[in-house]
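Researcher: Last one for today. Full complex below.
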Amino acid sequence: MKHPVALTVAGSDSGGGAGIEADLKTFAALGVHGACAITAVTAQNTVAVTGVQEIDTELIEKQIRAVADDIGVDAAKTGMLSSSGIISCVARYIGSRPVPLVVDPVMVSKSGAKLLRDDAIRNLQEELLPLATVVTPNIPEAEALTGVKITQVREVREAARVLVERFGPKACVVKGGHLTGERCVDVLYVNGSFEELESPRVATKNTHGTGCVFSAAIAAELAKGSGVIQSVRTAKAFVTNAIIHSLGLGRGAGPVDPSSWLEIERERLLVLNKLKEALEVLESSPAVRRLVPEVRINLVMSLPARYAKGVSDVAGVPGRITDVGDRVRAAAPPAFGASSHVARAVLKVMEHDDRVRAAADIRFSDEILTAIRRLGLLVSSYDRKDEPPSVKKREGSTIQWGVEQAIKKVGRVPDIICDPGGMGKEPIIKVLGRDAAEVAKTMVKIADGLR
Ligand SMILES: Nc1ncnc2c1ncn2[C@@H]1O[C@H](COP(=O)(O)OP(=O)(O)OP(=O)(O)O)[C@@H](O)[C@H]1O
Ligand SMILES: [Mg+2]
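Model: Here's the assembly. Have a good evening.
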């Protein structure tokens, strides 16, 4: 099987957030070899476009042919095309050897700069849209291309249908990023029917590159041989992820992060591996049995802070770690979302020191505390008696409050946090560490130090 190749014909964004740069990152993250033909060089950051230089059409055509003649193209996308001459040049090539084509009819940058000359809109409509597999206008672009005024989802559907029927692409997806509301709804019109693609609207100003990443992801999926509907669905999930994990770089609209798609998977594996390593350490040290509390040992590790949005991003041991007579044993292999209490503690700790990503609950006893102090570990604590009633009322918030108290008391994230318990609550000691294996090793040291 030949490795799939996607070609982007678009402008360069010196800030790396949109354009060719976003497209190539997206192709890479989706397992497709990316090639490019640069139509214009922009000097750009998160705030403004400060310069644009179009590339000669002759050189654009050479770039496309160089790729097509040797490497081959399984799908292509267009982004910033700037002028009618460039549009004609791209249309000529695609018309002569049809490949699945995604046309992102880029007109205006996020920062408000014009990226397509007014006189080129007609060329776009007449020469390029008919060749497209999927066209991906945002709301203002859909309005400009179809004349349909859009204020709500019903009109988004209308615009998508009009665009397909009037200009002849196979499909159109009108993006809902520019509408308001709690959800971001894109409308796909293909083969005479509609599909709405929904995601939560992410509350962020960092959306530089959303449109480029979305259309590039569709092209990548088409290059791999997926159909239009599946490609658009994957692209929607992909861009949503890139927005959730967007980067707060620059003073304006920071870039979305297409690389997070792969990076998160890698980090999830690393976390699970660290937990497995930790379990081996604990299971091969019989002394650890003496650390098992009534509630059994809970050991967790979080994804790095920038990917840790909630307890589902923290892995733990389902069924916890129990004393099986001659040693301790995990009830099940580690999994994400397996803990809520210790997970919330770790998430809170990471707000203060994002290097400390793991924790375990062990038995509270004076003997264990003595062993801990002998190791020279920094110990802090909180007392449920000081808990304000407002915190007490909110289900599950005691632990976050307690962690705050313990950190405040010693001025930094300690190695150990003691919770002396309360009515119906077993007292517990939390062992903290950078990763699960470090926590496990500390636990073994504590257990070995017991007299
Ligand atoms: N705040 C957000 N939260 C979630 N999804 C969003 C958000 N903003 C945009 N999207 C999604 O991102 C994709 C791109 O849509 P958008 O309307 O932003 O495109 P665009 O205006 O062409 O972007 P660009 O300015 O980068 O060209 C769509 O799938 C849209 O639903
Ligand atoms: Mg756009």
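Residues 260-283 form the longest helix (24 residues). The pocket of adenosine-5'-triphosphate (ligand 1) is lined by residues 18, 110, 138, 175-178, 184, 186, 199, 201-202, 207, 209-212, 214, 236, 239-240, 243 (CB under 6 Å).
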